[in-house]
């Protein structure tokens, strides 16, 4: 599965693509130059239960770590993953 990031100065997304199909989408909004808010995560019905959301979130965490950013997880899915995984708390805002 490939996770593709699209980013501009106000918003961005991580898209999960498998075999040419969009498996999932995680969107975020910039909240200043050093943090972004994950506001929505959705997974295509055909890909439920395959860890698509987790893969997109881990790509967001890697992006935050590489660029010294913080993440505010307003999306219920993203918040639940942060709540269960202390090993990614370093990027939590």
Keywords summarizing the entry:
5 strands; GNAT family N-acetyltransferase; 26% helix; 5-stranded mixed sheet; alpha+beta; 93 residues; globular; EC 2.3.1.-
Structural write-up:
- By secondary structure, the chain is an alpha+beta fold.
- The protein has a single domain (2-91), classed as Gcn5-related N-acetyltransferase (GNAT) (Aminopeptidase), CATH 3.40.630.30.
- It has helices spanning 52-66, 76-84; strands spanning 2-7, 11-18, 21-30, 35-43, 70-73.
- Strands 1-2-3-4-5 form a five-stranded mixed sheet.
- Strand 4, helix 1 and strand 5 (70-73) form a beta-alpha-beta unit.
- It starts with a strand and ends in a 9-residue tail after the last helix.
- This is GNAT family N-acetyltransferase.
- GO terms for molecular function: acyltransferase activity.
- Keywords: Acyltransferase, Transferase.
- InterPro entries: Acyl_CoA_acyltransferase, Gcn5-rel_NAT, GNAT_dom, GNAT_YJDJ.
């Amino acid at each position: 599965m490939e996770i593709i990031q699209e980013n501009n100065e106000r918003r961005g997304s991580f898209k999960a693509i498998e075999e040419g199909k969009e498996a999932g989408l995680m969107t975020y909004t910039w909240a200043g130059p050093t943090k972004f808010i994950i506001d929505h995560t959705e997974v295509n019905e055909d890909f439920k239960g395959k860890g698509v959301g987790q893969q997109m979130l881990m790509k967001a965490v890697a992006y935050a770590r590489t660029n010294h950013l913080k993440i505010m997880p307003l999306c219920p899915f993203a918040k639940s993953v942060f709540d269960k995984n202390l090993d990614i708390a370093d990027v939590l805002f």
